[in-house]
Write a structure and sequence with these properties.
The complex is a heterodimer of chains A (274) and B (379).
Chain A (H helix, E strand, L loop, with lengths): L1 H5 L11 E6 L7 H11 L9 E7 L4 H10 L4 H7 L2 E5 L10 H6 L3 H16 L7 E7 L1 H7 L4 H13 L1 E2 L2 E2 L1 E7 L17 E3 L2 E3 L2 H8 L2 E6 L11 E7 L14 E7 L4 E4 L6
Chain B lengths: L1 H10 L9 E6 L6 H17 L7 E6 L5 H4 L15 E5 L14 H12 L3 E3 L6 H15 L8 E5 L2 H7 L2 H12 L4 E9 L5 H10 L2 E6 L15 E9 L5 E11 L2 E6 L8 H8 L11 H9 L22 H8 L8 H11 L30
Parallel strand pairs in B: 1-6, 1-7, 2-3, 2-5, 3-4, 5-6
Antiparallel strand pairs in B: 7-8, 8-9, 9-10
Helix pairs in contact in B: 1-2, 7-8
The chains are: A alpha/beta (274), B alpha/beta (379).
C-alpha cells in the first residue's frame, strides 16, 4: 500500500533524490526509517541490484535499529558484515563529532561528518557502476544541534550527501525531521506553516527550508480525531517532483492511515480497514 | 504575458541600460517556481539556439539542482538532449563550501566527476566569496560566447535563497546589481522562495528586478489542501518599464508533462450575457434562428385548437353551476347568458348547428368520473 502511494517499486531510490520524513511529537516517524531500511536492504527484485545504506544515527543506538529491523525480517548485523550497511553511531561518547581530532582540524562538525560519510561511501564501492547508495539521517534536528543551531550547515551537509558520486549515480538521501521543533525559536508549530512570525518578519525553520528542497515529503501526523486503538496515525505523501514515480501513474496527494504492529506496519486508506 | 517575459529575456539589454532582470518568486503554497523558471529557461535556450536572442550564450548558476540537470537532461522534453558549448554551468551544487577540497581523495573524485561534463561546467568551491562567484560567472560567460568580447550572454541563478543562507542582503544585492551592470550580460533571471526570507529582503531584491513573477496558488487554501495546487496556479507578472510605468498582468498556468501551459484569466466582466447565449446554441448544420419575417409569419398562423369565434372566451359547460355566475348572482347581477339562456339564444339564430345535449344523473357525479355509467343496469 505504501509502495503504491510512493510509486516506488522498492529497488533503490533514484539518484540524487531527497526524501523527507516529517514527524511531530504526537506521532513519531521513526518507523519509516525501518520501512525504508527493509525495502532497500532486502529488495523484492534481486536482479535490480542491491542498494547500500549509510545510516547516520544520532537519535538511537545501533542495537535499537537492529532489534526493530530484525523483528521485521531484516538482519542489520548481517548486512553490516556484508558491507551493505554502515552505521555511523553519533551517540557514542568520543564519536567523530566530539572527539579531539575535530578540534585539531578546526573544521565545522558537519564538514567532519560529511568527510566520514564520504569515506564510508567510497569504501563501499565495489566497482559495479549501477550500485546505489542511500544515506539515511536520524534525525536532522539533532544535526542542527551538532552544528550549533546553524540550519544552513545542515542544509549544506544534506546537499553534499546528495552530491556524492558512487559509480555513475549520485547518492540519495532519506532524512527524518521534526516538524514541530525549531531550535532557535522554540516550537514553531505546524499551525503557522513552520515559520515564526516576528511582527511582519518570517524566519524560516529547518523543516520549512527542507520542504522547499525535498523531492518527496512524507508527513506523519496523529489522527485529527484523537487517539484510537486500531489506527495509530496518518501519513501524507506529497510528490514535489517526478523522481520517485512518473506523473501519469500517481494520484497526486495520498493520505493513508497506519497501524504499528510488533513485526510489521500496515497502511490502509482512511476508513478502509474496518 | 508569459510570451512577453520570454520576449524580454530574448531581446536583452538596451544600450546604456542595465540588463533586464526577471525574478520568479514562489512559496510553499505552490512550489511551482522551478517549473516556471524551467519554462523560461528552455524558451531562452531555444531562442539562443535559433539565433533569435540578443544573447549568444547562457550561464546557469546551479545552486539547488545538479549541474547535470542543465547540461544533460532535456528540460520538459524539448528534444535537444545535449546542448552546445553556448550553455555553461557554474556548479555551486557539488562543493559550495569547499568541503571536498580538504579530503585526500577529493581531487581524484573531482577529476572523474568532471570527465564527462568538463567542457561545460566550472566548479565553484566557495560560494561565501561572492566576488569569486561573480568572476566564475563572467569566466563561464566568456567561454559560452567563445571569448568574443562584444557578444553578450544571459545568466540564470536557480535559487537566490541558497545564496541568502550564506550572505547578508547588502552583499547579495551588490552582487546582483554588478552582474546586471556588466556590459556582456544580456539578461538575468533568478528564483527566490519568498516565504523563507523576511519581507524586507524580498522587497530589496524586487527593487533590483525589472519583472517580478509571483507564482501563486489559485485559491488560498488551508495547509491540508494546498497540495491541490501542485500543478496549477496563477501567475502575476509586474513589469517595470524604463519610464517608470508599471504593468501587471495575470495568467493561469497548468504544469503538464510537455511543459507549462498558460491560459489567460477569464474575468467576470468578460462573461457578457450575449456571449453566453451564443455559446449555449448547439452547432448544427441547419439554421435554428428565425429571421424577422419568419417570426411574423409564425405569429399569424392560427392553430386549429384555438377558439375561432367572436373573440369571447370559450365556455364549456361541465354541468356544475358556474363559479363566476354564482358570484354574479350573489351580487344580484345577471350575466345574461346563463346556461339555459345560451342554448335558447343560440337555437333560433343558428338552428342548423348541431348540438349535444347531456343530462347528468345527479350532481354527485363528477364530469370525468371513472365509474361505469351502466353498472346499475339490470338486464
Amino acid at each position: 500500500m505504501m509502495e503504491e502511494a510512493l510509486g516506488w517499486a522498492g529497488d533503490g531510490l533514484p539518484p540524487g533524490a531527497l526524501v523527507m520524513i516529517k514527524d511531530c511529537v504526537a506521532a513519531k516517524g521513526g518507523f519509516f526509517l525501518t520501512f525504508f531500511l527493509k525495502r532497500l536492504l532486502v529488495p523484492s527484485n534481486v536482479a535490480s541490484g542491491r542498494s547500500k545504506v549509510v545510516f547516520v544515527g544520532m537519535a538511537e543506538p545501533f542495537s535499537h535499529y537492529g532489534r526493530i529491523a530484525k523483528k521485521q525480517g531484516c538482519n542489520l548485523i548481517q548486512a553490516r558484515d556484508n558491507g551493505q550497511f554502515v552505521f555511523l553511531d553519533m551517540m557514542a561518547a568520543g564519536n567523530h563529532l566530539t572527539s579531539e581530532r575535530r578540534r585539531e582540524q578546526a573544521v565545522s562538525p558537519l564538514q567532519r561528518l560529511y568527510q566520514i560519510v564520504n569515506e564510508s561511501v567510497k569504501r563501499m564501492q565495489t566497482g559495479n557502476e549501477n550500485d546505489r547508495v542511500v544515506i539515511m539521517v536520524d534525525d536532522a534536528s539533532l544535526l542542527e544541534v551538532s552544528a550549533g543551531g546553524r540550519s544552513d550547515q545542515v542544509l549544506a551537509f544534506l546537499q553534499y550527501c546528495r552530491a556524492i558520486n558512487s559509480g555513475h549515480n549520485r547518492c540519495s538521501v532519506v532524512v527524518l525531521v521534526h516538524g514541530d521543533t525549531d531550535i532557535t525559536y522554540g516550537a514553531a508549530g505546524l499551525d503557522n506553516g513552520g515559520y515564526v512570525e516576528h511582527g511582519e518578519q518570517r524566519v524560516a525553520s529547518l523543516a520549512h527550508e527542507l520542504d522547499h528542497i525535498a523531492d518527496v515529503v512524507i508527513s506523519v501526523d496523529p489522527l485529527s480525531t484523537g487517539l484510537a486503538n486500531d489506527v495509530h496515525g496518518q501519513v501524507t505523501v506529497v510528490h514535489w517532483s517526478d523522481v520517485l514515480s512518473n506523473r501519469e501513474s500517481r494520484k497526486g496527494i495520498q493520505t493513508l492511515q497506519f497501524k504499528l504492529m510488533e513485526n510489521n506496519t500496515t497502511f490502509f486508506h482512511p476508513g478502509g480497514r474496518f | 504575458m508569459a510570451e512577453a517575459v520570454a520576449r524580454q529575456l530574448r531581446d536583452g539589454v538596451a544600450v546604456g541600460e542595465q540588463a533586464p532582470a526577471v525574478m520568479v518568486r514562489d512559496t510553499l503554497d505552490t512550489r511551482a517556481g522551478p517549473a516556471i523558471c524551467d519554462h523560461f529557461f528552455s524558451s531562452l535556450c531555444s531562442n539562443i539556439e535559433a539565433g533569435r536572442a540578443q544573447a549568444k550564450g547562457l550561464v546557469a548558476v546551479a545552486l539547488r539542482r545538479t549541474p547535470e540537470s542543465y547540461t544533460a537532461a532535456s528540460l520538459y522534453g524539448k528534444g535537444n538532449s545535449r546542448r552546445g558549448s553556448w550553455l555553461q554551468v557554474v556548479d555551486c551544487y557539488t562543493d559550495p563550501l569547499g568541503w571536498n577540497c580538504r579530503g585526500v581523495d577529493a581531487k581524484n573524485e573531482v577529476s572523474s566527476d568532471r570527465a564527462d561534463s568538463a567542457a561545460q561546467s566550472l566548479i565553484c568551491h566557495d560560494i561565501s566569496d561572492l566576488t569569486g562567484l561573480l568572476a566564475s560567472v563572467l569566466q563561464s560567460g566568456q567561454a559560452s560566447v567563445n571569448k568574443q568580447a562584444t557578444v553578450q550572454f544571459a545568466v540564470l541563478i536557480d535559487s537566490v535563497s541558497v545564496l541568502l543562507r550564506y550572505h547578508t542582503l547588502p552583499a547579495l544585492t551588490s552582487f546582483l546589481s554588478s552582474l546586471r551592470s556588466c556590459e556582456q550580460v544580456s539578461a538575468v533571471m533568478w528564483l527566490v522562495h519568498a516565504d523563507l526570507h523576511e519581507s524586507r529582503v524580498i522587497a530589496s531584491i524586487e527593487y533590483l528586478s525589472t519583472t517580478v513573477i509571483y507564482v501563486e496558488p489559485q485559491l488560498r487554501l488551508l495547509s491540508e489542501s494546498k497540495i491541490l495546487n501542485i500543478r496549477r496556479g496563477r501567475l502575476r507578472a509586474r513589469t517595470k518599464k524604463r519610464n517608470g510605468r508599471v504593468r501587471e498582468q495575470v495568467e493561469e498556468f497548468h504544469i503538464e508533462l510537455g511543459g507549462v501551459n498558460f491560459t489567460p484569466v477569464i474575468l467576470a466582466k468578460d462573461l457578457q450575457p450575449p456571449n453566453l447565449m451564443k455559446t449555449t446554441t448547439p452547432k448544427v448544420q441547419f439554421n435554428l434562428d428565425l429571421s424577422e419575417k419568419e417570426r411574423e409569419d409564425r405569429s399569424r398562423v392560427i392553430l386549429p385548437f384555438e377558439h375561432q369565434g367572436d373573440g369571447r372566451e370559450a365556455h364549456i359547460y361541465d354541468g356544475r353551476p358556474d363559479t363566476l355566475d354564482s358570484d354574479f348572482e350573489k351580487l344580484g347581477i345577471n350575466r345574461g347568458y346563463a346556461k339555459e339562456t345560451v342554448i335558447q339564444n343560440i337555437e333560433p339564430t343558428q338552428g342548423a348547428v348541431g348540438e349535444i345535449h347531456y343530462l347528468r344523473d345527479s350532481d354527485d357525479e363528477r364530469p370525468d368520473s371513472d365509474e361505469d355509467p351502466d353498472d346499475d343496469l339490470d338486464i
